[in-house]
């Protein structure tokens, strides 16, 4: 069952990360996600990490890479569902998740994506 | 990381099953889901099994129980993302997933839920 499904939700894609990420899984997720972005022409990606109790530097970097890849394919990425303890740890570790926007849950993430798509064709970094 | 997140998508809840289900996990999922149904007053539950390569009789029964529980809490359940190989195996095993509606993907499942809510006169607040 080592595969992370990419679900299409209207004009966006949703990735719910529930299992421990390792190199191979990350590569397959990036492959999958880029293929789905091409196929569905989605304009946004929501990555749900509500199941993750720990976000270490590897996961943080991986999320950054995924967001960068999505951006090149003209899609914005929003990280949703982060647990409070994870947020505290990230700050303590000095990880700022630069280039990734966050929202409290999927609904808020979708609203954020819609708002930024409405504002302009491009996804600006200002809040 | 042994927890299956329940995500709120507008008026529905989404459960993406990616890990092997065992008794304890099923119980915690049912607890979570019923609590979320009560809290969010969601009218529908989408269960995504696109990550599952095998659906055995235990999983089939579990899905049936979840759907029955949701029904008692006034929510419809739609199973989405079933792989073709899984469908073939279910038929060969004689498992009909009675009482569970299915759809090919999350988008179609949401459309199905919306249509059934519109049909029923009980829920008349949305067009």
TrEMBL record, chains A, B:
PROSITE patterns xrefs: STAS (PS50801)
InterPro entries: Bact_StressResp_Reg, STAS_dom, STAS_dom_sf
Domain STAS: 2-113
Position of the signal peptide: none
Cross-referenced Pfam families: STAS (PF01740)
The protein, known as: STAS domain-containing protein
Species of the source: Robbsia betulipollinis
